[in-house]
Amino acid sequence: MKNTLGVDIGNGGVHSVVMPSAVQFVPEREIPRDYNVVVAVPARLLTFRQLTLPFSDSRRLTGIIKEEISDSLLFPVEDAVWDYISSRDGRILAVIANRADMEDFKSRVPVEYRHMDAEPLALGRVAAASGIKDALLIDMGAQNTLFVGMKDGMPEFFRLIPRGGNNLTSEIEAADSLSPVLAEARKKEAGTEHPVVRRFINDLFVSALISTPFPHEKIVLSGGGAALPGLCDFISEKLGVETVMMPMPEGLSPCRDAVAYGAALYGKHREDSVELGGVVKKEDQPWKVWLALILLPVILLSVSLQMKIVTLEGRNKQFSQKIEVQVKQVMPEALTGSAGMAQMKKEVEEAVNDYNDPGRRVLPLLSDIGNASSPGITVNEMDFTGESFTLKGEAESFEQVDEFRKKLGASFKKADLEEGKTTPEKKISFSLRLEP
What we know:
The protein is an alpha+beta fold. The protein is about 40% helix and about 25% strand.
């Protein structure tokens, strides 16, 4: 079974967990080349939209979801990176990020990665792995506190409150006139016995706009702030709801490893995973594999072209014979007359053959396609019809398809995307039309 490395990049540093062994990964170690590396995108970069639709066809869903989110975003939908999860009863949760924010985040990721996950969904995966289906998940970090609502094992919403453990320390520092170091120590020692801590927790729930009566069976805590003494009992008494720490495999801590563990569970079930612009780095696969993937379609295309050339030659011969019959009826002397007419006929035939011979034009264009291709692009089919190519294949992301199209645009008169959709395997199936 292939190992998956889940990576959580937070204010407290980089945390990582390897599955299926469910152990911490030491950051100083070199990541093995065959690891499937999944990075959790912080919730502060994400927004979400809830939808309920009466069908599950992915092609129809993609278009409708795009239209729905375009009306509510603060930026053009063309500048968005988004994906969605869905339930069997038609519930949809679309997860969206600004493309510029994602590019900035990806540029600062310190590891080579294959997938970009969503932090709220990673937490939902951890809960679901322990059989928790109806709960409010609360991840208390240093800068932010994340609330994730789950129903029937699927995240329904998430809300990020920009207040975390560092803010609580500052409030204790001001209230008790302590240094930052002593305020942090008092927070960890007193926990919910301290009035500032109790007020802070109450304010978090007010800011999160949690419905009343409380809509979930239990509350599940994770993150560094969840280690506050007495926190589970305080929340249980306040809301009258069972409050527990996030269940984790032995050796992993809910206060440190929850998000990384959830990212390591990525892809186990299609319905709980999104792709927010993951890429395969060039080093992730041997060059021989890429060469084979590129050459195989070229070989197949060459065979197809030879067959098309034979067919075109046959059609050209039939066409010439028909033309000859018509010319004989109208201008009998054109085929049997002066040398000038014979020379004109020869020149016309040569010009027609030069124009209709695709073999003379195809090889340079194949070279252009190969130069524009990159790791992650798989070309499955190329069809040459007269004055255009149809190029069909798969990519890791829509961004990669667009980059491929732009590179082709430098060599072709036109390079248009005719079709692009997400496959059940989380690939992007595309069809490009190219005009030399």
